[in-house]
Amino acid sequence: MTPIRSLRATAYTVPTDRPEADGTLAWDRTTVVVVQVTGGGQSGLGWTYGAAACAAVARAELAPVVIGRNAFDVPGAFQEMVRKVRDDGRAGVCGYAISAVETALWDLKARLLGVPLCALFGQAADGVRVYGSGGFTTYPHAVLAAQLGGWVHDQGISRVKLKIGEGRGTREERDLRRVWQARETVGDHAELYVDANGAYTSKQAIRMGRAMEEWDVRWFEEPVISDDIAGLRRVRDAVRADVAAGEYCCDLYTFRRLAGAVDCLQIDVTRCGGMLEWRRAAALAAARGLDVSGHFAPQLHLHVALATPNVRHLEWFHDHVRIESMFFDGFREPVEGVLRPDLSRPGLGLELREADVARFRTGGVDAAGD
Ligand SMILES: [Mg+2]
């Protein structure tokens, strides 16, 4: 047995490069909570994008049940963490903290075995497609065009997504104009995706979805709030685009409910509970004949996605690409829209640039264990 020796959780807050908004939220900074675990002379790395409170939960609630456990028994540690937060509620902060710790434990296990994480899970593909994601409602047209056009024409990423549903669904004309502008920018052959972040009512979403068929929109993400399963199903059954949701799912029960109402199930490894839950949710989708798509954090999704036969693509999300390229040595760039791992590096293949990112730290480092 190789015991887990320590757990460290640190919050960093990084300003965005411009003010950003989608249909239902505006922001100008992003907090990333990084977890580092050690055992057997190795360290593992995981993270989540959530409130700094995730770091406090990891240190106060999760570290006591993880430290001392066998580093090779990641599912056992996951189960103990889920049990520990029963009274606090798994959905949200606790689940995000569990996700960060669980992914760090998988990274540690793969490093102890000296293999890339995708090999530990069982590699099903040598690369995974990404889609460019940004197109915030706050962007002036020139910025939108430069971002979407850059992905398609300069980087060879032939799938891009923009935000719609501006002002909680109150600016339909501007939404449609921006979708038209996006199609003009990317040309006829790129796949065009939209994300309303739950801003529309179901009838409104159906009307907007049909209007956007003129520009061959292929993906309509969260046309209505994803808690409204019946509304999602109504939209899915009425529009040509694939309806997608799942980014807030925090356990298999919520994934199961959503899987009956979407065309593609989104899974976020930084929220759902981690890599075991990611693969179980993907299996649940496979049993319904559905693809899955990785939401957020492309560097953290790469290895688990490679071990998932029914993965469609990963989200090359502007904010997280920017943060992950600053934070991690070993950051991978897509080539012609396909992200591939460096199989010469164990685990996730990433190292935190602690000295470089210390200026973003918003919570004191606190280590449990040694
Ligand atoms: Mg979304």
From TrEMBL:
Keyword Ubl conjugation listed? The answer is no
- Residue ranges constituting the Mandelate racemase/muconate lactonizing enzyme C-terminal domain according to the UniProt record: 141-242
* Keyword terms: Magnesium, Metal-binding
Requisite cofactors: Mg(2+)
Coiled-coil-forming residues are: none
Q: Which PANTHER family match?
A: ENOLASE SUPERFAMILY, MANDELATE RACEMASE (PTHR13794), MITOCHONDRIAL ENOLASE SUPERFAMILY MEMBER 1 (PTHR13794:SF58)
Q: What is this protein called?
A: Enolase C-terminal domain-like protein
